[in-house]
Amino acid sequence: MLQDSLPGPELFVVALTVSDAIRPKITVILDSEQGFGIDECARVSRRLARHIDETYGEEASYTLEVTSPGADQPFTDLRQYTRHVGRTLSLTLQDDTEKTGLLEATEAAGIQLAEEVKEKNKKKVLPTAFIAFTDIKEARVVVSFK
């Protein structure tokens, strides 16, 4: 049902939650490899609301929120990496080590990351290294206000 409400194949669902309340809140978090705006969120929201009303009746009581992931939210879908090529990521690996660096490219099995390390109060960029998706526990964009 939800995939049918998405305008075009470029949008995908990264999270869907329904609160356990008298008036449930349905939250749909969408993303795209190219990014998208509020107009797409509004279109999806209207389509979903129409479908819910047709399925459960217009008297169904709920709140619907369609949004994109916040800048500080961890990636939940491998397709999210593509949109962030050229940005700095913070990674936590499966062995709990942490890496920060510039996402230079994505591949079918992982990413190319130019890791930044601190040496004597200076940042040093290591040569680009491949990191497999299976080795990544969590990835987030580093938000910078420079």
From TrEMBL:
Its main location: cytoplasm. Residues 20-72 form the Ribosome maturation factor RimP N-terminal domain. Keywords: Cytoplasm, Ribosome biogenesis. Residues 78-145 form the Ribosome maturation factor RimP C-terminal domain. One of its GO terms (cellular component) is cytosol. It is found in: Cytoplasm. GO terms for biological process: ribosomal small subunit assembly; translation. Pfam families: DUF150_C, RimP_N. Required for maturation of 30S ribosomal subunits. Belongs to the RimP family. This is Ribosome maturation factor RimP. The lineage of its organism: Bacteria, Pseudomonadati, Bacteroidota, Cytophagia, Cytophagales.
